[in-house]
Amino acid sequence: MRKKRVLLLSEGFGSGHTQAAYALAVGLRALNPNIQARVIELGNFLNPVIGPLIVSAYRKTVSTQPKLVGMVYRRQYKKSLNRFTQLALHRLFYNHISQVISQLKPDLIVCTHPVPNAVVSRLKRLGLPVPLYTLITDYDAHGTWTSSEVTKYLVSTSLVKKKLTDRGILGSKIEVTGIPVHPNFWQTHDRVELQAQFGLKPLPTVLIMGGGWGIMYSDNLLEYMTRYREDIQLIYCVGNNDKSREKMLADPQYQHPNIKVLGFTKEISKLMDVSDLLITKPGGMTCTEGLSKGIPMLFYEPIPGQEEENCEYFIASGFGEMLISTETIDKWFKLILEPYASVQFRNSLMTKRNQQYNPMQCSRAVLQLMQ
Fold first, then answer.
1. pLDDT per residue as tens digits for the range 149-197
2. d(Cα 294, Cα 272) in Å, to the nearest integer?
3. Which UniProt keywords are present, listed alphabetically (predicted)?
4. CATH 3.40.50.2000 given to domain 184-337
5. Which helix (H) or strand (E) holds 237?
6. CA gyration radius for the chain?
């Protein structure tokens, strides 16, 4: 009997979309080892030369013109990608996608980014019989995610479901599953062992991240945190931003035994376990990983649009606060310097997490839909 096949399509515009796809694939295989799950970043796969250039241009636009990104996001908020745009995307960048699907013969397709979602929607209009599931990887529902050809929407919260139903999408086509995270974030690691692994002291610890593209070195608030370096350990994760890492390592302000400056790492789940506070750009995946660990979060410089919506959700749910001033840093750093208060607060977040989030729910939902 042939194994069931799931094709998960993403894009490289930020790392969260693809991370969600991989997390779902791992979850599906954990529930049913007979499932074959394949993850593809479609643009890079079909156009290995042009694809990275487009992602690089988008990254530069987000970094240098965030207001423009926000304006475009809001202007198109209620609009799905029209058929002309879908046709243009297909002919310019995705003209071989039909061959890929034909070769892989998936039983269902899950898209974790709006662009492959639109491309597959067009193929379904042309007769592709494979069910299409759309996993929205933020805490908002932009119009570009929507298409009448989608078989089922998998969404993060009931609020996102309401936003879709308000646009006329049937509630029966939407399931609240949460955003899947990798199994590494489902388990808790021993803190003492982690301190030994990373060369850390038994001190309150703050993890500072900037998402897949790294933090901005020039941020004054990030520098202000170093004033606490005698009493609090600071772990700066700058991702793939090698220039920022080199500058920070050369700066005497960051040259201290209680300060670690890391580049890209696959150990984020362990770093969250060994930390008492997470300071991050509010990407949907990073926020969900923080939620799964029950770690309090401070959010800085959200990209206008979906990251602002992510912030709003997690702040309203009691999992975080906007980092807007040095007073915010003082408040939270003083909290984690009080061991009892810090532990009590994190325990309360774990209770909320258990009430609101099940890391296996999305994988179970897809598995059930396959039967």
1. 999 999 999 999 999 999 899 999 999 999 999 888 888 889 999 999 9
2. 9
3. Glycosyltransferase, Transferase
4. yes
5. strand 233-237
6. 21
Smallest CA-to-CA distance from 362 within 5, 110, 33, 40 is with 110
- Angle, helices 284-293 vs 16-31, to 10°: value is 50
For every residue of 151-218, which 3-state class applies, written as one string?
A: CEEEECCHHHHHHHHCCCCCHHHEEECCCCCCHHHCCCCCHHHHHHHHCCCCCCEEEEECCCCCCCCC
Spatial neighbors of 267 by CB under 8 A, at least 6 apart, are: 198
Domain with CATH 3.40.50.2000 in the chain: 5-180+360-370, 184-337
> Rounded to the nearest 10 degrees, how much is the dihedral formed by the CA atoms of 95, 96, 98, 104?
-160
> Among residues 97, 91, 104, which one has the least CA distance to residue 4?
104
DSSP 110: E
Fold of 5-180+360-370: Rossmann fold (3.40.50)
The conformation of residue 122, written as its DSSP 8-state character, comes to H
Nearest to 230 by CA among 208, 258, 251, 254: 258
